[in-house]
Design goal:
The protein has twelve helices and six strands. It is mainly α.
Length: 383
């Protein structure tokens, strides 16, 4: 019965995937107006476009579709210029758009693009900082210096671990280790919440200050920061199970999330917004947390494993019932939109990112990945 529920949700997400392709052609979705279904889109993919391609690769596990497979190949190739961009966040489009495709058996060219990006990231590693900094062309590039980092950038570590294994590259693995270890150490606070961002001394690597690029204040717990921390500490641990403290970080972050999650199981955009409950939810943060908890449930100690799986299922059920638009003529909206995402509420957001109550392609991906895991089509530990 449960699989029937998940598979019906998968059907809706795939319907929206095809609807998006009909609307955008060879452009990449960024975020959408949930009343019209219309997307703000990019030509080069920015940092989010790989998620759209990754959803195509995942969809082929539910149903083979030649048009969708061809479209994914073409869009993945369009991401190639991102390899040269000076930002740690280029790992997102190349990992989800290319490496995930290679993992799911869709060609050596995708693997080679992923490896090329990984080598470029290794060249950006700063030994004084002990990590790969955000870079001059990061999303927040206009507002940062050369020694800035964030919990979001920890995604690069599992990407590099995958690439190091593919290429049998010891240096790449070493950079992956140092990046994961330093990012986690910097951003997990004593109360077990993750702060988003850090400024470091360029000469010594010493922490100068913590803040957020996207949260409501410099001390708040932005929803996606907590979710990113949970996900990427877990993924890094899965790549190197000798690092017990990475598992400890993931468990601490997950326990904090569960303790602070609203009773209806859909997170607010920032856990410290004084306007709660009259403020934005964020299904993107909630979906990322689901992807983290489903992975963590496979390695967590004792009774926590069942607790994490149960929480992930509760969040997925809540989002499916409350935020996933249905298929049917009685609803004028496009079917399969994951509504109630909060991309960026900050006044200093890039204009292209200013979506507060929207569909966000990043949330769509993790929601879909979690559906596919719950329905048994994929094992997300392999992604």
């Amino acid at each position: 019965m449960q699989n029937k529920f998940w598979n019906e949700a998968i059907r809706r997400v795939i319907a929206r995937l095809d609807d998006t392709a009909a609307r955008l052609g060879d452009r990449f979705p960024h975020w959408a107006d949930t009343e019209t279904g219309d997307w703000v889109s990019t030509d080069d993919g920015d940092w989010t476009g790989g998620y759209y391609v990754g959803m195509h690769w995942l969809s082929l596990r539910a149903e083979d579709n030649a048009a969708r497979r061809s479209r994914a190949q073409q869009l993945a190739l369009k991401l190639k210029p991102r390899i040269a961009v000076d930002t740690v966040f280029k790992s997102y489009p190349l990992y989800y758009g290319c490496s995930v495709g290679a993992m799911l058996g869709h060609g050596s060219e995708l693997r080679e693009m992923g490896l090329a990006c990984a080598r470029s990231l290794v060249s950006m590693y700063d030994g004084k900082l002990g990590l790969i900094p955000l870079g001059s062309q990061a999303e927040e590039g206009a507002n940062i210096g050369g020694a800035e980092t964030s919990i979001d950038s920890m995604q690069t570590a599992p990407f590099l671990f995958w690439a190091a294994k593919q290429a049998n590259d010891a240096k790449m693995r070493e950079v992956a280790f140092h990046h994961a270890d330093r990012i986690g150490e910097l951003h997990l606070r004593e109360d077990d919440s993750f702060i988003q961002s850090s400024s470091l001394d360029a000469d010594t690597g010493k922490l100068i200050r913590h803040f957020t690029h996207k949260g409501i204040s410099d001390t708040s717990t932005w929803g996606r920061a907590q979710a990113w921390g949970m996900l990427y500490t877990t993924m890094s641990y899965l790549h190197d199970p000798t690092q017990q403290r990475w598992l400890d970080w993931a468990v601490r972050g997950a326990d904090w999330w569960i303790a602070h999650l609203p009773a209806d199981h859909i997170a607010f955009w920032d856990f410290d917004d004084p306007a709660i409950p009259d403020t934005n939810r964020d299904t993107a943060a909630t979906s990322i947390a689901c992807a983290a908890l489903l992975r963590l449930a496979t390695v967590a100690p004792g009774a926590r494993a069942a607790r994490y799986r149960e929480c992930a299922e509760q969040m997925m059920k809540a989002m499916t019932e409350q935020c996933l638009t249905p298929v049917g003529q009685d609803d004028r909206r496009a079917a399969g939109m994951l509504t109630n995402a909060c991309f960026n509420k900050r006044a200093d957001a890039r204009p292209i990112d200013a979506g507060e109550n929207c569909e966000f392609i990043v949330g769509d991906y993790y929601f879909f990945e979690s559906l596919m895991t719950l329905a048994g089509h994929v094992d997300n530990r392999d992604l």
